[in-house]
Amino acid sequence: MNPEQQEEKVHVLIIGSGPAGYTAAIYAARAELKPVMYAGFQPGGQLMITNEVENFPGYPEGVLGPKMMEDLRKQAERFGTQVRYSSVTEVDLSKRPFAVRADDGKSIMADAIIISTGATAKWLGLESEQRLNGSGVSACAVCDGYFYRGQDVAIVGGGDSSAEEALYLSKLCNKVYMLVRKDRLRASVVMQRRVEQAPNIEIMYHHDTVEVLGEQEVTGVRVRNLENNTTRELAITGFFVAIGHKPNTEIFKGQLDMDSVGYLRTAPDSTATNVEGVFAAGDCQDKVFRQAVTAAGTGCMAALEAERFLVGREMGE
C-alpha cells in the first residue's frame, strides 16, 4: 500500500453493492458496526439496467430496478452506512486488519470484509443487443420471462443454463427458438432430452445471431445459418442470452478459494470464505440461483456472520 495515501480504520467494509451489499449494509449498520461500502463500477449491480422487477417481495405492483436499488441504498444510509461511489482496486487478506486500497485515494484497514461484487452476464457483443438491453433483451429468463407469456422468444446458448431457461420459457411462451452455434447441445443428456421433447422449443443448430431487430423494443432477430451462410429473420418480442456469467472477483485471485470460473467458495450453510473474517454474498458466490432475493438473503447472512466474528474477537474467543 502506498504510504502517501490517507489511511482509515473501519469495522466492516462492504465491497460491492446490489441487493446483497445493501442488505448486508442494513444489517451491519443496525448492529452499530458502522459499515463503509464501496459501491463499485456499477452501483446497484445488474438491477440498475433492469426495467421492471416483479418478483421481489414487497412490491405488489412491481418496481423499476434502479428505483428498488435507490430504496435499498436509502434504507442502508438511514441506519448509518457510508456509501462511496468508488471502487476497490487492491486487497491484502494475508493478515488482519485487512489492507484495502480504493480508487478514491484512500487506504483502508478493515476488521471484517463482506464481498458482494456480483457477476456480469456475458453478451454476444452486438450493438443492437446492448441498445435494446432491458427493452426485450435480457440475460435472465427467470427474471423477465413472465413479461413474454404467450409470445414468441429466442434464447442463445447450448449449455445447461440455456436449456434450463429455455424450458422455463417454454412454460410461459408460445414459441421458443433456441439458437445454438454448434451441431449439438453442451447440456447434460437429461437436459438435452427435456429440451428436445418440449413441443414448443425449436432448436436451431448451426445458427448465429447477426442482429437483434427493433427500434424501441425487440421485434425480431436476424440469424445466420453457419452451414450455408444464409440469413433469415425470426419474429420475436423477447431475446434472451444464456452464454454464462463472469463473477467480478479478479482482485481476490490467489487470496480466496474460487472455482475454475471465478465464483468464490463459501463454507456450507455459510458465507464464510477460506479467510477468517472475509465473507462473500450474492452472485459473486452464487452460480445457481442468481436472483435478487437470494442475493439479499446471503447479504443478511454475511452481516450476521461478520457481527458474530467481530464480537467473538472482542471477547477473545
Mean pLDDT reading: 94
Helix and strand pattern:
EHEEEHEEEEEHEHEHEHEEEEEEEH
Please give the oligomerization state of what you see: single chain
User: CATH superfamily of the largest domain, called what?
Assistant: FAD/NAD(P)-binding domain
Unreliable stretches covering 5 or more consecutive residues: none
Number of helices: 7
Query: Could you estimate the helical fraction of the residues in percent?
Result: 10-25%
Structural class: alpha/beta
Total E-strand runs: 19
Q: What's the CATH C level of the largest domain? A: Alpha Beta
What is the alpha-carbon Rg in Å? 21 Å
Major sheet size, sense and barrel closure: 7 strands, mixed
Strand content: 25-35%
Kindly describe this structure.
The protein has helices spanning 18-30, 65-78, 127-131, 141-144, 160-170, 189-197, 292-314; strands at 6-15, 36-38, 52-53, 63-64, 82-84, 88-92, 98-102, 106-115, 119-121, 137-138, 152-156, 175-180, 201-205, 207-213, 220-225, 230-234, 238-241, 245-247, 278-280. It has 317 residues and is α/β, with parallel strands linked by helices. The chain has 2 domains: 6-120 and 245-314, 3-Layer(bba) Sandwich (FAD/NAD(P)-binding domain), CATH 3.50.50.60; 123-241, FAD/NAD(P)-binding domain (3-Layer(bba) Sandwich). The strands form 5 sheets. Strands 1, 2, 5, 6, 7, 8 and 19 form a 7-stranded mixed β-sheet that branches. Strand 7 and strand 8 (106-115) form a beta hairpin. Helix 1 (18-30) packs parallel to helix 2 (65-78), helix 1 (18-30) runs parallel beside helix 7 and helix 5 runs parallel beside helix 6 (189-197).
